[in-house]
Each structure stands twice: as structure tokens, then as C-alpha cells.
Amino acid sequence: MVLKYVPYSFSKIELFDTCPFAFKCRYVDGLKEPRGDHLIIGEASHSIFGDYARHCFETGRSKDAGFLENLIKKYTAGLTTGQAAEVRKLAVAFFNNSVSFPATNEGYLIEAEIAFTKDFKQTGWWDEDCFFRFKPDLFYRQKFPGNIIQGFLRDYKTGWRIPANSAVESSLQMLLYAYCFYVLYPGTDVMKVSLDFVRYGVEKSRMFGREDVEHAPEVVMEAIERIENTKDFTPRVSGHCASCGYKTVCPVMREIAKDKIALFTIETREDAEKAGRLILALEAVTEMLKQNLKDWVEFHGPVAVEDIEFGYVFTQTRKVKDPSSFMERLMEQGIAEEDFWEMVSITESRIRKVLKKKGYSNIDAILSKLSRLFEVEDRTSFRSYRRKESGEENKTF
Hints:
Layout: H1 10-18, H2 20-28, H3 37-59, H4 65-76, H5 81-97, E1 108-109, E2 114-116, E3 122-123, E4 132-134, E5 138-144, E6 148-157, H6 165-169, H7 172-184, E7 190-197, E8 202-208, H8 216-228, H9 251-258, H10 269-300, E9 303-305, E10 308-310, H11 323-332, H12 337-343, H13 348-357, H14 363-370, E11 383-384, E12 395-396
Parallel strand pairs: 6-7
Antiparallel strand pairs: 1-5, 2-3, 2-4, 5-6, 7-8, 9-10, 11-12
Helix pairs in contact: 1-2, 3-4, 3-5, 4-5, 7-8
């Protein structure tokens, strides 16, 4: 296979999965996206984080407010008042909430240019055989009792949104980073990869043993082959369209812009089909507008409209890790067993989802044996749904 789009990076793969047409605009046609506030604020903030971490490692200090203040002045020079204020806010949150930088004799890397060949052997960032590359915000190693060496990789996030734990658990970025550092430092025993949501002081992490990342090259190659074999870079309409810099050249967005939105009476099948198309167009426009507002709020904060406020709300969900122990503790508190089961929601779809996730192949047979234990409720709901051959899930209005 002739590789047309090397070198690859996580962001390049992610862009293709988000929208093949946007990938084509950037990497095939060479069209540049305009630099918005979020890019400018993100770059300045990351420069501050990197320089501050480097200073702490070099001096052995865990905190240095004076040095941070000088960095803020340096990297906000030339920014607008709003941009500078947001960078300062993030820098202060970083200072107050970030972990202390430990003294380490195992080395550290800050925004280092790391590149690999197709066989995942280290090479130069600009070398001809560079196949995959990335810049980690922060990486360091520490030695613990028993000569256990642990690697710590941290990626700073400056937005307002925190993803669900499920998104973190399936993160391709975290898997790739862990694998690459096992290649760079084969003596590492365990890797901790963390996403640091600076604004909230929230860290979402995954621990990787060597056996957990062995399949990473296969995952990467599957994604890259999917990109390389693509001939028709069809636009993919989603909430990401709102913040996309290629809307003006996107054929789907042009068609949506042409649609005239009006109410009409549905009398014929043609009218019904027209109404369906209009609903899809309106949903796409609404989703894009919502995403556009989310993008703005992500970097500028909540906005109030009459008695409604649009913004990100920080929430924390507490889930029971060990149902058996939890049930025992409840019994000790005098809670009746039948009351416990009222707290637990078990459905066929939930069972199917868990069994599929755990790799069971005989799911239908298992559910068949349980069928008499289910309480069945029949009902109808109006839905828009993909045709069955597409294999996609229905969408409930």
C-alpha cells in the first residue's frame, strides 16, 4: 500500500473519523482553517504550562507563583483583552489545581517532538521514514520501592467540556501514547496516562500494563488503511460542522443553506417525504447551532437567555463498584432485600450490552433461558430510523 498522507498523528486520524471531507480539505487540498480564539487561547495556555513545568523540574520547586506571573505576561502580550483574560484564568487554575512536579532521576519530556517509523522504531520528526508522530504535553518517570518504574504522561485540556468515563476508557489517543512510551522506554513497568481538565482541576486517567497496549499498532494500521483506501471523501454531518472551518466549501452545508423552511400540510407521500427531508435538515442545522454555541461557551463561559442559561454544568456520578458488598452493607443498615432490588434496574438491552462488552458469543441463547423472568411491556413510539441493512440504531424523537 502506497501511503499518501504520512506522517500520521492522532489528530489526523481523529479528523478523518469526524469528517472525511474536512480531512480532504486540509490534507489533500491543502486548505487552511482560520485561527479562532480557541486555538489562540489553547496555544498560549499550553506554552505557559510547558514552560512552568520545565522550570519546576529544573529547579526542584513544586510551586513558583512569581515565575508563573512572568509567563502569563509573556504569552498574553499581543492577545486581545478577552483572550488574555481567558489565558490568565486557565494559568491560575493550572497553578492551583495541578499536581506538584516531583523530583525525578528517571528523566522527563515536555512538548518533545516524538516520531516513529512504520515499524514503530524511533526516527526524526522530519525524516523521510517518519510514519507517526506526536508532542506529549508532559512525560516523566519515577522509581518506586521494589525498583518499579512508572511512567506518567499528562495531556492538558483547556476547554469547558469533560467527556464521559466511557470515552476515556476507549480513547485511541491514550492507547497510542502509552504504547509509544513503552517503545521509547522499554524498562518502564507500568504507564499512567492522564487527561488533565485544567479549568476544573479534574484528572481522568488510565493505567496501562505492557500487555494492554500490544494491539495498538494493529488499531493504528486499521485506522490508517481506512483512510488510505478512501476514494470518496463524503462529508459527515454532525455537531462538529458548527465549528468546522470548511463550511463554505462543503456541498452538504450548501444544500442545507438552499432549503427553504416553511410549514405545509402533508397530504401525499411526496409531501411526507419532503417533510422528512426538512426535519433532517432542521436537525442538522439545530445540531450545528447547538455545537456552535457549545464551542463558544467552552471557551467564554455560560450565557443567559431570559430565564434559561446555556453552559457546561460540572457533575459527578457515583457508581457502585461491588454490588455484592454494597448489598451486604445495606442489609447491615436494616434495608430489606426486596427494597435493594428496587434500586437496581436490569433490562434485556442492558444485559445484552454488558455480555457483548465482555465478549460472550452465545448472548441470544443466554437471554432465551432468561426470557420467562422478564416483565414485558409493549408500546409504540414515533421514530426516525435508518433502514435495517445499514445496521445503525434507531433514533427516538
